[in-house]
Write a structure and sequence with these properties.
The complex is a heterodimer of chains A (62) and B (319).
Chain A lengths: L1 H14 L5 H33 L9
Chain B lengths: L2 H14 L9 H7 L2 H17 L6 H25 L1 H6 L15 H23 L1 H22 L6 H10 L1 H10 L4 H24 L1 H7 L4 H4 L1 H25 L5 H23 L3 H31 L10
Helix pairs in contact in B: 3-4, 3-9, 3-15, 4-6, 4-7, 4-9, 6-7, 7-8, 7-9, 8-10, 9-10, 10-13, 10-15, 13-14, 14-15
Classes of the chains: A mainly alpha (62), B mainly alpha (319).
Chain lengths: 62, 319
């Protein structure tokens, strides 16, 4: 079983899609854009939370 | 093979390439959001927000504008997803990401839905669910009512569909006040009556492309003479609507004077288009009207904003 999976894995390596340098470059650019968008959302949600809830958000009664 | 079935074949061809590694760049996804339309949406929403009565924290204002921009972008993505067949046969749109094969239709659909749901949800949390509901309605109206239904069905497609593009100032106002009043309705009507002359001036020059794509734009269905007549009729409606905020006491004389002059120029350019004797003259007149109409809307809203900052817009009286 394990050997079969290993063989299958090897086949994937042999016959799988091999990205060209251009495709790798564009994938990297897309990944960076997603990371930047996520970072911007984190900052946005943090700022909105502070504005909506105010500085007293951490001093609530237990 | 009909034009639309060629478009369908184009889409199925894209589908067949779905297993190939994507060649899309980040800017292709940005292009799907129709950034030029987004800029108009953001600006008119910003003006609606600024002239609304009440306090609105700058961070919440920026977040709300971002949501409105992304919501408009979502509508643009869904429009490009559905219209990929039409875009593929028109010279102006052939190089858009989907017909050019850089973004797969399924990717665009998922992207558009994600953006739309995210924008509405975040706007609801930031500025209230009334503004979010208006944004959701705007996306639905543009993507479903206009794109899927009206655009391929009636020559009045952009007249009715123009309501989607006219709603952003109302959303901006609602983000601040959680309500709608007569003043934002006037801003809605200005954009609503501005849309037909603007797009028909463009479609007059692209008539043959729309005919090949099978889109029943007014110049294709009713001909150029009727189109020019309806452009003039809408310009005649637009001119007094543009002055209405001043006449009803919502804006000062600076805005009133500018709106009167700019509205008169819109009517004059529409009249020149209607009375153009040759095709060449009509082509040039349509181009002038299209360019001026863009300038008209941006400057009218900009002057309204300046007028407000000068203290002429009486926010307490609005409503």
């Amino acid at each position: 079983m394990t050997g079969g999976m290993g063989a299958s894995g090897n086949n994937d390596d042999d016959d799988g899609i091999v990205l060209t340098e251009e495709q790798k470059r564009r994938r990297r650019a897309r990944s960076i854009a997603i990371a930047l968008a996520l970072g911007a959302l984190v900052l946005l949600f943090y700022a909105v939370t502070v504005v909506k809830l105010g500085p007293g958000v951490l001093t609530r009664p237990m | 093979m009909s034009v639309l079935s060629e478009g369908a074949a184009l889409q199925s061809g894209n589908h067949a390439r779905a297993i190939e590694p994507s060649l899309a760049e980040a800017r292709d996804y940005f292009a799907l959001m129709k950034p030029r339309v987004m800029s108009l949406v953001v600006f008119t929403a910003f003006v609606g927000m600024m002239v609304a009565p009440g306090q609105f924290h700058p961070v919440l204002a920026v977040a709300s504008l971002l949501c409105i921009a992304v919501g408009a972008g979502a509508a643009g993505v869904l429009n490009m997803w559905y219209d990929a067949d039409i875009d593929g046969v028109m010279g102006r749109t052939r190089q858009r990401p989907i017909p050019a094969g850089r973004v797969q239709p399924g990717e665009a659909l998922a992207f558009g839905i994600t953006l739309g749901v995210g924008a509405v949800a975040v706007l609801g949390l930031v500025a209230g669910w009334f503004a979010a509901a208006l944004l959701a309605f705007t996306i639905f109206f543009y993507a479903v009512i206009y794109t899927i239904w009206l655009k391929r069905w009636t020559a009045q497609n952009i007249v009715i569909g123009g309501a989607a593009g006219a709603l952003p100032p109302v959303i901006g106002w609602a983000a601040v006040t959680h309500d709608v009043a007569l003043a934002p309705v006037l801003l809605f009507l200005i954009v609503f009556f501005w849309t037909p002359p603007h797009f028909w001036a463009l479609s007059l020059r692209r008539c043959e492309e729309y005919r090949r794509a099978g889109v029943p734009m007014l110049p294709v269905v009713a001909g150029p003479i009727e189109t020019k007549r309806q452009i003039l009729a809408h310009a005649l409606l637009l001119a007094p609507t543009g002055v209405a905020p001043f006449l009803l006491g919502y804006a000062g004389p600076l805005y009133g004077l500018f709106a009167a002059i700019a509205g008169a120029m819109m009517v004059m350019l529409a009249l020149r288009l209607k009375t153009a004797r040759s095709d060449t003259a009509a082509h040039a007149a349509a181009k002038r009207l299209f360019s001026f109409s863009l300038l008209y809307l941006f400057t009218l809203f900009a002057v309204l904003l300046v007028d407000h900052w000068l203290g002429h817009w009486p926010p307490i009286a609005v409503g």
